[in-house]
Amino acid sequence: MINTQKAKPLFSYNFYACPLCIIFFLLNIYVLLHEGDDVHFSFISVIGGFFLAPLLLSSGRFIALLCTPLLLSFSLFEAYTANKYDLITRPILRAIAGTNQHEAFSMLASYGVFPPLILLTFFIFITWLTYKAASLKLVLLGLSAIILSITLTEAWHKTNRQQPETQRYNISERGHWLRYFFPGIMGDLIYMTTLYISSDNRPSLPHLEQNSSIVGKLPLKEKNVILIIGESAFSGHHSTYGYTLHNTTPYMKGLSDEGELCVVPTVHSGANMTRLAVPMLLSFYEPTEQQRLYNEKNLIELARDNGYQTSWISSQEGTGEYARPYGYLSEYSDFIVRQDYHASENHVDWHDESLLPIVEKRFSTPSPYNFFIIHLTGSHSRYEDDVTKEDIQALPKANAYDKSLHRTDRILHQIIDLADKHLKDYVLLYLSDHGEIVDGPVKGHSIQYGGKDQYKIPFYIKSDTNHYCQQAESMRNSRGQYSSIMTKFLLLEMLGYKVKEDTLKSYYNHDEVLHSDGVVYDYDHLPHR
């Protein structure tokens, strides 16, 4: 008799599907163990998250191939992020989601060839495994869908009770609360998706309320105030701060040696990421007073109120969830050009050199009083992108980070030359948004247990007198630290505003910073393992 029964396949569906589910399970566990304190764990939400991979694999080959490799690659990326930054927090996810295309490719390239190669190999392997495993399994599909639906429904109902007005205004706020009640890879994926589709473009409407620290106007004010905001500059690698391995800041050091530049020592930023640090320089936004960014007049508005023409010139973007806080500030200026705003007609991109023609044009525009904000890309990772042939020739044995500092020194040289040529009477401040970890096994900023290097920044003041340098010295706290948060009070004096003495004294006995996990810490008690 001829046996007409079909032979069983050598490997069953489970042979391929089980490894995929196990990989997702293990990656999700790892991510859950590294979620920050900004999530809420419950039994049903944790269990529910594990059924996403089975749901996709049992949905048929088309859906499985479309989604599963991307999900697992994202999961691997999440695990890598958890390993690098120690904690996966809301600010970290905002930073990743808000990274522009150039920064994303630069940062990926900065990890070397192996991580991207591993990710690509992993993606190909998972795609092949998914092709073998994917099949329409109605029972598993139904079971996974029910469990996930229960989990998401519970998270949705809990979310509805949290700041409903804010959630209606901003979809990313809804994503944040869904992640809060549904932690893990799926919650992070939901939140980052809402960040991506949300422009978060809060309109820059005039504020009526003025901060209570301002008590009047001064009889004198500076004609031209220039604030240059650097990026990821660690003062410990500036020659002006005693770094001797390479002459990373020859121009600024030369000015300092000649007595034409004040180098403020022992300075740290108010935060370890750009979106948190920059608003602290130009508004009353502070670690414990974050609502002031949107509730009170910022320094650009106050400058305009006191007769200043204001200009914001930036090689960074100002839209999207990550960049929006300082993009929002920029739009109070009379003149704005950013990498994503009036860029093409002004030939501006992420290269800091592209700003120089605009800087010269604005410096030569006649106006009795001017307030210029110049926001640089500086030494943002990947450092090799921030280096030119001139820097390589000047520091042939230096690493890419030191060369990027040399490049910023040249940019400052050119800006100061333009100010000398067109403005003559001016005060110039340069400080970085935050520092950078460059000497340890883990490099970068926004790192949970990264310590103080990601806060330590250079601060230079160029003025005809030593007055503002002395003022900065008087603003040190009881531990001898100058926080960049105090810079707004220096700027207010330059812009002709009088500030209460009691306000300045109130900073003397504390030194708070806003860390990348969204938590306010004392600077001397940053989180550590």
From TrEMBL:
<feature type="transmembrane region" description="Helical">
    <location>
        <begin position="39"/>
        <end position="57"/>
    </location>
</feature>
<dbReference type="InterPro" id="IPR040423">
    <property type="entry name" value="PEA_transferase"/>
</dbReference>
<dbReference type="InterPro" id="IPR017850">
    <property type="entry name" value="Alkaline_phosphatase_core_sf"/>
</dbReference>
<feature type="transmembrane region" description="Helical">
    <location>
        <begin position="108"/>
        <end position="131"/>
    </location>
</feature>
<feature type="transmembrane region" description="Helical">
    <location>
        <begin position="12"/>
        <end position="33"/>
    </location>
</feature>
<protein>
    <submittedName>
        <fullName>Phosphoethanolamine transferase</fullName>
    </submittedName>
</protein>
<keyword id="KW-1003">Cell membrane</keyword>
<dbReference type="InterPro" id="IPR000917">
    <property type="entry name" value="Sulfatase_N"/>
</dbReference>
<feature type="domain" description="Sulfatase N-terminal">
    <location>
        <begin position="223"/>
        <end position="464"/>
    </location>
</feature>
<feature type="transmembrane region" description="Helical">
    <location>
        <begin position="138"/>
        <end position="157"/>
    </location>
</feature>
<keyword id="KW-0812">Transmembrane</keyword>
<dbReference type="GO" id="GO:0016740">
    <property type="term" value="F:transferase activity"/>
</dbReference>
<feature type="transmembrane region" description="Helical">
    <location>
        <begin position="177"/>
        <end position="197"/>
    </location>
</feature>
<dbReference type="InterPro" id="IPR058130">
    <property type="entry name" value="PEA_transf_C"/>
</dbReference>
<feature type="transmembrane region" description="Helical">
    <location>
        <begin position="62"/>
        <end position="80"/>
    </location>
</feature>
<dbReference type="Pfam" id="PF00884">
    <property type="entry name" value="Sulfatase"/>
</dbReference>
<keyword id="KW-0808">Transferase</keyword>
<keyword id="KW-0472">Membrane</keyword>
<keyword id="KW-1133">Transmembrane helix</keyword>
